[in-house]
Amino acid sequence: MEQHNAKSNDTYEYFEKKGMDRENALACAFVLSFYTGSHVYQTVNRSASLIARHGNGEATSLVNTNKFKEAGIIMYYLIKALAHIEFYWGIASRAVDLDAKELDDYKPGNLVSWIQFSSSKKGEEPPENFSSRNTIFTIYSLTGRCIEYFSNFPQEEEVLFPPHSTFLVTRIVRISSTQTKIYMRQIELGLCKHSVMWVDDYIFYDWWENKDYMEKAGTIGMDKNVHFIPKASTESALVFLRCKFGERLKNEPTFRIVTDMTRDKEIQPDNAGARLLAAVRDLGFNNYCLVFTMNEEKAWEKINSLIPASKRHKITVTKDVKILEKFINFVS
Fold it and tell me: Where are the chain's structural domains?
């Protein structure tokens, strides 16, 4: 416990800077240290941390009431901590042993949700001590959080996925007779209370300048944790809205759409945002929409040319960052 106390004393100020009081900041830093185990009692503490890693009945049914209460406290502060840590967008790897029945769930095109906290490592190679396991996941992360700063093993470059993270299986490669590599992309389906679909052709690029606004809204804490559904084209956005997950968001006040106006990669780049909004209205979605663009006047010209006046309600066009931030935080 001394090591966890020492580590949390070194790192708790991160959470204070995010607006937490000292007591909660220390608790969040401590539980992250606990989760990653201990140098001195590595085996014992990593086994104990299974209480936190398995947020389901299978693990908690094996412990007594006191342990269950302890697990609840750990779960609370672990989720609270992750809600204040920036997203990791990029490749992460995870190695596990799966039986034949479990492997059968991972077919290209399938959606898979991991209900527990799930650890992974930055990059395409899993941790060396797990590399012999029979299944290697290569994941494009959207909401995984880098916790190496809080970890007792920073060299592991751990990326932690929150419970109920959902992934699309894109490809399966048989590495050898005993090992399979599964490629997945993390996706958001709008199943949380507040969600925003953001459409921009450069949204998955490391240098995309609007990521900071998205992260700020997505990591403001537990009271209003906005989830984002990133899409890189008009077509991919409409595919989502037409599917069952998109349909359930139709006209819901807790679902909004943000788009740029120009998308260089589309056939008609200059009015991509206006075309998207026209199609959104044609699909019967009357949700609030915002066009984030530097030229508001030209954007309105394009919108007016494609969308009749009767369907232009709940559309905002702005270059003002403050208006954008209020919009994606559901303040206005």
Answer: 2-82, 87-187, 195-328
Taking all residues of the chain, what is their mean pLDDT, rounded to a whole number? 89
Who's near 237: CB < 8 A, 6+ residues apart? 197, 199, 231, 257, 259, 276
Q: Which two tokens stand for residue 112?
A: 């898979």
What's the CATH number for 87-187? Answer: 3.90.176.10
Rg of the chain (C-alpha set): 22
For residues 259 and 274, what is the distance between their CA atoms, to the nearest angstrom? 9
* 102-109, Cβ contacts within 8 angstroms, sequence gap of 24 or more: 103/135, 103/180, 106/169, 106/172, 106/182, 106/184, 107/169, 107/172, 108/169, 108/170, 108/171, 108/172, 109/168, 109/169
CB 273 within 8 A of CB 307: no
Question: What is the full DSSP assignment across 206-252?
Answer: TT-TTHHHHHHHHTS-STT--EEEEESSHHHHHHHHHSHHHHTTTT-
- The side-by-side arrangement of strands in the sheet containing 227-231 is 227-231, 195-199, 255-259, 289-292, 315-318
Q: Which residue's structure tokens are 């990521």?
A: 211
Query: Among 100-114, 175-189, 206-220, 258-272, which is the least confidently predicted range?
Result: 206-220
Higher local confidence (pLDDT), 191 or 300:
300
Question: Which amino acid, one-letter code, is at 270?
Answer: D
Class level of CATH domain 195-328:
alpha beta
Q: Specify the length of the chain in residues.
A: 332
pLDDT at position 44, please?
32
Token pair 């470059």 is at which residue? 157
